Amino acid sequence: MRRSTVLLEDTPTAPRPKSAYWRIESEMREKIRTHAWSAGTMLPGRQVLAREYGVARGTVDRAIANLVADGTLFAQEGRGTFVGGDAPLPSATAPVLYTPPALPKRQPVAARLGIIAALPATPQSVSADPPATLWIDTVIASLERVFAALGGMESCFYAWDSTTEPTQALDLSVSDALREGMDAIAIVALHEAEGVDNAVYHAQLLAGQSVPLICLSWHEMQRPIANVFYDQTFAGYVAADHLLQRGYDSLHYFAPFVADWIQARITGAQAAVRQAGLPPETLTIVPDKNRETLPPYISNHSERDRTMYRFVREWLRTHDGRIPTGTGIIALNDWEASEIRRALDAGTQQKPGADYGLIGFDDSPQSRLHGLTSLRPPLEEMGTEAARLLHHLLAGEGRHKQIRLFSHLLPRKSTNRKEPPTDR
Predict the structure, then answer these.
(1) Are the C-beta atoms of 353 and 276 separated by less than 8 Å?
(2) What is the CATH number assigned to the segment(s) 112-231+378-407?
């Protein structure tokens, strides 16, 4: 299954000493740039590459880790390492700007687009989970803008309550869109809800072959669904790799809830440790035992924050009352990172950046206010790539294509360790 990535504007990086792993990394980038290794190509095995370059396996692992960290390559557990896009991406730790690819030079497709958004069921749940509406608004704005630029006639909006009977509710919204003459349908499903995959697949069958349907989601959906999604495993990888690169030699991932996306990020963090050639115990999942008994991720924002705060305070009481200096902490998201910071400040007066590293996800407004390093979902890119994919589908191309996008690392002072990073 081919994955495509958006292109990012080239950003200069600081010069590096020309060590063996740097030379190998550069040669691999050149192979990708010249399309000697095209998008989707599986790399030779690590031992094969080590023999080819005349170096130790660990040197190859480090070169590949840098390429995986910035999205040039992606690794699949049990399968191998693959070229992740049509052109190399800049360093994951470098500031990047999103540049939408040039629009295709073809006749515009005049079409009506039905946008179906999975919204929280009640106003209370909207206020309880701030990203829900913000993310949807950002994605839809980008989708509508680019769809219109490609010649789209108009777009119409339909709400979808995905929290109760998601298949039946989505079928009603799709039926409304079809009855009103929509030429294409985009389903925006960016928050946790049971049964969304099955509901979207059923909606695909309802739309049939004549009306293109795509889904924009926070995870990869089952085929045969045209899908634009962002890679949660990669986000976890970048979070852990960033902390390791900043010199934090012990990582803690605070995850007192369970969800598919949480496990995907944990898997990515574990891969970063493994790719760095470090022992598995470098990363501690908290709690690390009986995870199958943990509660599911709590959708209510306030309740979830209280639970996280109490969890961290209790954990401190059973671990000498302090987080070891030089520890890097990965939080479930920016809101839970704030609760971890608050709990440590109340119990130990330890500060992020000075005493420990702290990284979250989602780039919430308070993350900027508190100087929290975060990973921002590729929201604008999702709308842009969805519009482009719809354009292709309406022209009879790209059926069931899936587009994988990557979060953007935003380094801030919470991971600005005062000591120089160790040379690994």
Answers:
(1) no
(2) 3.40.50.2300
Please indicate whether the domains covering 112-231+378-407 and 232-376+410-415 agree at the CATH topology level.
Answer: yes
Indicate if the alpha-carbon torsion angle 164, 167, 168, 172 is positive or negative: positive
Which amino acid makes up residue 264?
Answer: A
pLDDT tens, the chain, 424 aa long: 334 443 333 333 444 445 788 888 888 888 887 777 877 777 888 888 888 888 888 888 888 888 887 778 887 766 678 887 543 433 333 333 344 444 444 444 579 999 998 765 444 444 445 566 788 889 999 999 999 998 888 899 998 876 677 888 888 899 999 999 999 999 998 866 667 788 888 888 888 878 999 999 988 886 678 899 989 999 999 999 999 999 999 999 999 999 889 999 999 999 999 989 999 999 999 998 888 889 998 877 889 899 999 999 999 988 888 888 889 999 999 999 999 999 998 877 888 988 999 999 999 888 888 999 999 999 999 999 999 999 888 888 766 688 889 999 999 999 998 654 444 4
Q: Tell me the domain boundaries of the chain.
A: 3-83, 112-231+378-407, 232-376+410-415
The CATH code of the domain at 3-83 is 1.10.10.10
Q: What is the CATH number of domain 232-376+410-415?
A: 3.40.50.2300
